[in-house]
Sequence to fold (132 residues):
Amino acid sequence: MYNLSTMSFKSSDSEYGISGEGKAGGAQERVEKLLSRQKFLEKEVERFKIKIAAQSTENIENEVQSINNVRVLSKKVSVQTPAALREVADQVKSKIKSGVIVLGSPVDKKVLLIAVVTEDLIGTYHAGNIVK
Fold:
């Protein structure tokens, strides 16, 4: 048990970034800086998630199947945004060179899906129809 009457709790306004002059203006500036920092950190987290999802596709060659002489990959990945899913799909596309790729990611109670067809197969397969 602690005896609060003998404990010393010291803090200064400067410790919390509070100055005596222009508190309202300074508070607004601090809030803007914090919001900016939060936005930056959210972007960093998203970049790391993309990187982790991309690392899960490093040995993708083992998962590619051949269907009617076309290389096909369907895989579940863990990303949170459509942009991140597209980034992973582009990385997979560059690794398999020729084929059809379908990636999915569960987000909340929904699923993000993307289908990608490499340049050489665009005349034969349509990515939009594959997703439908």
